[in-house]
Amino acid sequence: MRTLPGWWLLCVLVAGPAAAAPPRAPGPANPAPSLSPSLTPEVQLCLQHLKPAERDRAARALGPLDSLPRYRVQLEVEPKERRVWGKVQVELVAKGPQPLTELYLRLTPNARSRQVTLSGAKLNGKAVVLEPGPEPTLQRVAVDPPVPPGGAVSLEVAVKGTVPRAAPGAESLMGGAGSLLGGGAAKGGAEDHGAFSATADVVSLVGVVPQVPPLDDRGQPWDGPQGMGDLALYEPAHVLATLTVPAGWAAHATGTPLGEVPERDGRVRYSFAAAAVRDFPVLVTRGYQSATATVNGVTVESHFAPQDAAAGKRVLKYASQALAEFEQRLGPLPYTHFRVVQAPLSGGAGGMEFPGLVTVATSLYRAGADPSQVLAGMPGMEALQEFLGAQGAGLMAQVGASLERTLEFTVAHEVAHQYFAGLVGSDPIHDPVVDESLAQYAALFYMEFTHGVETAAALKQEAFVMPYQFFRMSGGQDGRADRPVGDFTGGALEYGALVYGKAPLLHHASRRLIGDEAFFKALRAYVDTYRFKWACRTCFTQELAKASPTNAKALGKLRARWWEEAHGDDDLGAGDLQSLMGAMGGGLGDVKLDAQTQQLLEELLPQLMGQ
Hints:
Blueprint: E1 2-3, H1 6-14, H2 41-46, H3 52-62, E2 70-78, E3 83-93, E4 100-106, E5 116-123, E6 126-127, E7 131-132, E8 138-147, E9 152-162, H4 183-187, E10 196-198, E11 202-205, E12 237-245, E13 249-253, E14 256-262, E15 268-277, E16 282-286, E17 289-295, E18 298-304, H5 309-330, E19 337-343, E20 349-354, E21 357-361, H6 362-367, H7 381-388, H8 391-416, H9 432-451, H10 453-473, H11 491-502, H12 505-514, H13 516-530, H14 539-547, H15 552-564, H16 568-572, H17 577-583, H18 595-608
Parallel strand pairs: 2-12, 18-19, 19-21
Antiparallel strand pairs: 1-20, 2-3, 3-9, 4-8, 5-6, 5-9, 7-8, 10-11, 11-16, 12-15, 13-16, 14-15, 17-18, 20-21
Helix pairs in contact: 1-8, 1-10, 5-8, 5-9, 7-18, 8-9, 9-10, 10-11, 12-13, 12-15, 13-14, 14-15
C-alpha cells in the first residue's frame, strides 16, 4: 500500500463504461499460445493470463501448474443496494508433509465487522459446518477424513455481503479521516482504506472472494489485517470468475478478460481468467472511461471517471513508463494484463496494490487541478494562512507541481508492487518493510532514470526524509522499522515515517556502497530467484552480498542500522520548522520565525497531522 505522503504538503504549507475486450482470434499476427494438452481446459484458460515465455518459468518455480489452488468465482452485484452475492469454489492439493485436517478461508472485509457471510459449505460435495477462526477474518472447516499429501480437496461456499458506504470525504485529500495522513482512522484498528466500500459510481469489493491463507511453521494461518498497511497475501493460484452487474456498470478484476455477455434481464456478465496470482480484487464502476497501451506484451489499462480523463490518461502514461523501466531492470512481468483503476480511497491511502490490478486515489487525480482544496477544512488552517500572508498564493503553484509529482510517484510505487510482493512474495503483515521499502525505492529510481537526479533528490527529501522529520517533530520516537504491522503502536504516523520514510533508504545506502552495477545485478537476481516464491527478511541483503562479496559485512551492518536500530536523527535529521521551510524553497527559508510564531506552528502541527 502507498500511504499518501501528505508530509511534504505540510512542508509546503509551513515551509463510457470500460468494456472487457474479448479474446482476439488466433491468426498469423496473433498465434494461439502453445499449451500442454495434459492440462485441463480450465487451467489452459487461466494460463492465457501468463505470457507464453513465462509459463515454463512459473512451472519451474511452482511445480506442475495444474496443482496450484484453483478458484471458481460467480458473483452478482447490485450497486444501488450495495449488495453482493454468489458462490466460490476452491480446489487445492494437500502439499504439506502431514495429512490435511483443516481448511481456513479469509474474508478481509470482516476485520472491521461482519460484512460478508459464508453459508452452505460443502467439502468434496458433502455439507460441512463452518466454524469461526482464531480471528474475525477467518472461517474454519474440519477436513474429515484427512486428505493425505498429494490428495485433492474441494470446498464450496455461498457468499453474501453488504458493502458499507465510503467514508465521508473519501474523494478528497482529507481521505475521510480528518487529516492528510489519515492517522486518526488508522489508530482505530478498523481502517481498510476503502477497499470494501461503495460510492454512487464505484463499488470496491476487495476481499469479498474468500481465499485460503498461507500457514506458518506451526500450521497456523498468517495474521490478518491490522487496521493499517496491507490486508493480506496468498499462495499463487488460478482463478476463473464471472461478475454480473447492471447495465451501465462495468466490472474490473485481475486476469485476462474473456468477454462480456448481456443477460436477459438487462444485466451484463463479465468473465476473467487469472493464473498464478496471489489475490483477486474486484471493482465495479459506472460511467468510467478507459485508455490502453502495450508494454512488452502487457496490455496496460487505465480506468477513470470522465471528469478526470486528463489525469487518467497521464496515469496510463506513468504506469506504462514505470512498467517499461521495471521490466528492463527487474525482469519481465509474467502477466498479459495490468490495470489501474481510479478509486475513492480513504484513511490517507494514495493507492492500493493487488496482483494485476491497482487502485489510485481519486484525490490524487483531482487535487493537482485545484491545489487549494488541499487546505479546505483542515484544522488550524486559518491561522496558518494568516501567517503565510501574501506568500500563500505563490505557494499554490508549488503545491500543484508537487501533487502531480506525487501522482506519478504513487503510480510507479504501485507498479513496483507487481514485483514486490506480487511476484516476489513476502508476508505484508509480519514483514511489511520487505515489500514496501523495495516498492518505495523502485519508484524513486524510476523517477531518477525518467526525470533526472535532481528530481529524484527532491522526491527523496519529500517522500522519505520529511515524513520521518515531521513524525519526530510531532513527538514521535525513532525505532526499529523491521517489525510486524501490529507492533507500530504509534499508528499511521509512525508506520509511514519508519516503513515508507526511513526503511527504503537502506537500499539507497546499499547502492551507494556497492555501486549501480552490483546493486542492480543483485536486484535482478533477487527477483529471478524468488519469482512466485516467498522471500525472507534478509534475502535481498544476501543477493547484494553475492554481487559484492567484499562488502558483505558492511551490507549487514547497513541493514541493522537502517532497519533494526534507531539512527534516524543521525541519518535523516530530527528536523525543525525553520530548516524544513528552507528545504522547500520558494522564499520560505528567508522567513524568520519569532518565538510566538514558532509556538503557533508547533501547536498547529499535531492538528495538521490528524492527532
